Task: inverse folding
């Protein structure tokens, strides 16, 4: 499993859930709750595999260090927004506004990751390393799902 293909597939799945949530209204609290739970679970697993497997492989190379450190910070911001959204009433217009900020933050992060980061990563990682990272990330995702933490 290619690391970039795995991450892109995750990004597409998250984008679909974001679109589904965006299509809800404040009155659809049950639907929002379910979709938000799915979104949070997907993002939690995705962030863990990036932070524990993918980013450390890029952090040491000069060419990818800065963008990797920025990605960690973007993850921190997204986690904070997720935490605030999780505890806030889903039928509040402020929830909707905060969700919009979350969606825009994720879209920016994905655009930067798939564009600049992946391009630089291809220059510092061999094909074998890219495949090995993908296998490790896939296995970590499987383990989390089997353990029920996903």
Result:
């Amino acid at each position: 499993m290619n690391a970039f293909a795995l991450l892109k597939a995750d990004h597409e799945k998250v984008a679909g859930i974001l679109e589904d949530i965006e299509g809800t209204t404040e009155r659809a609290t049950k639907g929002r709750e379910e979709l938000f739970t799915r979104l949070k679970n997907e993002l939690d697993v995705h962030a863990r595999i990036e932070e524990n497997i993918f980013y450390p492989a890029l952090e040491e190379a000069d060419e990818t260090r800065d963008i990797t450190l920025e990605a960690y910070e973007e993850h921190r911001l997204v986690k904070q927004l997720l935490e605030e959204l999780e505890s806030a009433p889903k039928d509040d217009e402020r929830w909707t506004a905060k969700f919009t900020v979350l969606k825009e933050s994720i879209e920016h992060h994905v655009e930067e990751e798939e564009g600049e980061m992946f391009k630089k990563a291809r220059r510092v990682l061999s094909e074998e390393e890219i495949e090995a990272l993908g296998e490790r990330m896939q296995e970590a995702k499987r383990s989390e799902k089997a353990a029920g933490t996903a």
About this structure: Residues 93-124 form the longest helix (32 residues). The chain has a mean pLDDT of 95. The radius of gyration is 16 Å.
